[in-house]
Predict the structure.
Amino acid sequence: MVKWLNLVISLQILLLPSLVVSCNPALAQHQAAKQNNDFIVKPYLQLGLEEKSDASAATVVWFTSNDTHKWSVLVQAAHSNEKAGKAGKAAIDAKDAKDAKATKATKPTLEDERPADSILERLVALPGFSSPIKKYTARLKKLTPGEPFSYKIKRDDALVFSATATARKTAAQPFKVAIFGDCGENSNGQKEIAAEVFKAKPDFVLIPGDIVYRHGLYSQYLTNFFPIYNNDQPVPMMRSIFSVGVLGNHDIALDGNATNFDKHNDAMAYFLFWDQPLNGFGTKYGEKNTPPIAGAENKQILFKKSVGDAYPQMANFAFDYGNAHWTVLDGNYYMDWSDEKTRKWLIEDLKKAQSATWRFVTFHQPAFSIDLPHGNEQRMRMISDILSKYKVDMVFAGHAHCYERSYPLVFSPKAERRFSMAADGTVDGAFTFDRNFDGITKTKPQGIIHIVTGAGGAKLYPQGSPSEYILKYDSSDYSYTSMEVVDKTVSIKQINTKGKVIDQFTVTK
Ligand SMILES: [Fe+2]
């Protein structure tokens, strides 16, 4: 186990002069968890910080008090039964070897339990904390892609947590994704969608921004997020299903021109809780196209030391899952997607992804939306030329608390000029629509389909009507997008809290 002693020492020095006793109920809950030796956040699955996608690896993250316990992780990976019977392998149910032998032909076989490949321990002391807590990050390797695995977490040799999951899929394996944004408001709608998604057993969950209301705070994750998606019952989802988060406007603290730690001292928890590939365009603190922070210098230092390289790197990244390449972008107000550096990175990323069967892009603020509050916020139209040129198939956004599906469309700068954004946020350009695509018999779209799936839990927007570029609009209920990818066929369903399909279509290649 790697101990980050320097970090521990420097954080403790920083904390001494600024002990903060908070009366925030979520932080009180976190204090109680610390005293009771409980998890502050129970284990959950992440892609991990590694730049390169690896279908045989997974990251498990959990949070505890700043204790002195020895934590360990045991992993047991399954493989399909053609490999069964190899020397040194244990049967799936070691307690009943006879039965395991009898069922060997049909059940997957589990390898012997083995320790996680690494466990990192990081001291976390956000500006609002009265004392530090610990973040543990275990990396599990040599899983069999697409096959089940289980992991157990021990504290001083006592088993304190276990879960089962399915390893990531390779390009040869079909997969299913659930997508919903604008969720962490602790509403009944959020809980109903969480239950529907968990029931559907996707391979991973994608949240295109506004993960936690209203300011993306650590304390808000403890009340509005983990208790809904990673509880013991009824939705122990995040411990067994990978999840991917995208930075939305409510995931920064909405303090004006910068997230201000003097106003929100446990802000920007996105960079603490998510462990996602650090393979974006290499931005650094204070640089352009970086989520800006403000407030007392010692608070900024505490935040940066607590989250490490995740800030500001993790705002933009890319990964492969199955036969698809996924590009995750920051669409917030400080981002300039006409900037050469950001565009170059996006172009290079999509160029490298040309061999993938599918290319999907996700960001929070939709490029094409007819919702009233955000219809003029068209910043992300600035990359439309790149998305078209490098054959992106679909874009998933949130921000508008509804469901919207566009016609397949191509959006180009007028008269060959580059896009530019007007003072009111609009981006002018020329549309070409594919109105023949019906997703049933005509399934090869000429253009990109843009989906807004922001009905994940926050208060729904008023019902709108289809427009020139929006084919479907629904905000009559909370909903999520279910996407199944089988080789060259993508089947999309939009499903509401009653499990009812409110829109569906198929795309083929
Ligand atoms: Fe938003």
Summary: The pocket of fe (ii) ion is lined by residues 210, 248-250, 364, 399 (CB under 6 Å). The chain has two domains: 2-79+111-165, 169-406+449-508. The two ends are 47 Å apart (CA to CA).
